[in-house]
Specification:
Blueprint lengths: L4 E5 L3 H12 L3 E6 L23 E2 L12 E4 L5 H13 L3 E4 L12 H14 L2 E4 L10 H6 L4 E13 L5 H6 L6 H10 L7 H12 L5 E10 L5 E12 L2 E11 L6 E9 L2 E6 L4 H11 L1 H6 L3 E3 L14
Helix pairs in contact: 1-8, 2-3
């Protein structure tokens, strides 16, 4: 694997996991950014095992632009509006970026002006910028697209993902509303604090890859309520529709203790395809791996704002 010098931008649980794996696979951390006062000013090695002892954490992102990095591994927030002010200076400085921002995985449908601006800047500076992760970025978009390769006359794609968040990080449990009342859940959804971000982006990515024109994307967000009338998680559905025909159906449940956790993809086509990953793909561990495994692909990709479906196949690292 190509060894790269990287900046870790964001040291929450996902960012730390990404930086740790990248370091263990031979990439070199040259700088780290986080605005948390409990982290800024401290050595990166206090949070990232194996980080060089001379690398500190700074809250000033501008201070790392000339750190000699090849790429920035970015993991801060979910909405494009939140991260665009962070990404633009990085691209302007000639740094490639892999971000876990969910809306960045396919921003063209919902944020075309912002996407075009970032794309133009990245092209002008000769670097690639891409949003990657498990969902969006793999399970509910890239993987179904790959599975259509042996198909013709594709009529409909449906993906069901059921995640037991009791096995996942605490911030994710909070994000999907665990232990809220139903009223608190609905207020959180309205304020954009509760619910998974990325289903519409996944639907738009699938449609783009298959050449389908969507007239609209519909999404619903409902609580999963337990026996004590407290919220156990979220059930979200997203449909990509052309005219009166539903072409894409994405069904996501993220809750504590759901029945039969799994990832299931069904393609109505010739031939039909149905694939089930029993237990589902662990989102945190898989996100670390996808981001790190993509480093050489992004560094060698054509410049611009990239889409996961446009990258060469990302391969994992075998044990040697």
């Amino acid at each position: 694997m190509l060894s790269a010098r990287f900046v870790q931008y964001g040291l929450g649980p996902i960012g730390i996991g990404i930086a740790d794996l990248a370091s263990r696979l031979g990439h070199r951390l040259v700088a780290a950014v986080d605005i948390d006062p409990a982290k800024a000013g401290r050595p990166a090695a206090a949070f990232i095992p194996g980080a060089p002892p001379d690398v500190g954490i700074t809250a000033d992102a501008a201070a790392v632009l000339n750190a000699g990095a090849d790429i920035v591994l970015h993991s801060t927030q979910s909405r494009l509006a939140q991260v665009l002010p962070q990404l633009l200076p990085l691209a302007d400085a000639g740094l490639a970026v892999i971000s876990t921002c969910e809306e960045l995985a396919f921003p063209w449908y919902h944020h075309p002006v912002e996407a075009a601006s970032l794309d133009a800047l990245a092209r002008s500076r000769g670097v690639g910028v891409v949003g990657l992760g498990v969902n969006p970025g793999f399970v509910m978009d890239l993987l179904p697209v790959i599975l259509t390769a042996p198909c013709r006359e594709i009529r409909h794609i449906s993906v069901t993902r059921i995640v037991d968040v009791a096995l996942r990080r605490l911030p994710l449990q909070h994000k999907v509303g665990v232990e809220l009342t139903v009223e608190e859940f609905r207020l959180g959804v309205a304020a954009g604090r509760v619910g998974h971000v990325g289903l519409p982006q996944s639907a738009a990515m699938v449609a783009h890859a298959l050449g389908w024109k969507l007239d609209r994307i519909e999404e619903s967000v409902e609580p999963v309520v337990g026996p004590a009338h407290m919220v156990q998680g979220v059930h979200q559905m997203c449909r990509g529709i052309h005219g009166d025909v539903g072409l894409i159906s994405l069904d996501l449940t993220m809750a504590t203790g759901p029945e039969h956790p799994r990832d299931e993809i069904a393609i109505d086509a010739l031939p039909p395809i149905r694939v089930t990953v029993e237990g589902g793909i662990h989102g945190d561990q898989a996100t670390y791996a996808i981001v790190v495994n993509a480093i050489p692909r992004v560094l060698s990709a054509p410049p611009g704002l990239l889409v996961p479906t446009q990258l060469p196949a990302i391969a994992g690292v075998a044990r040697t």
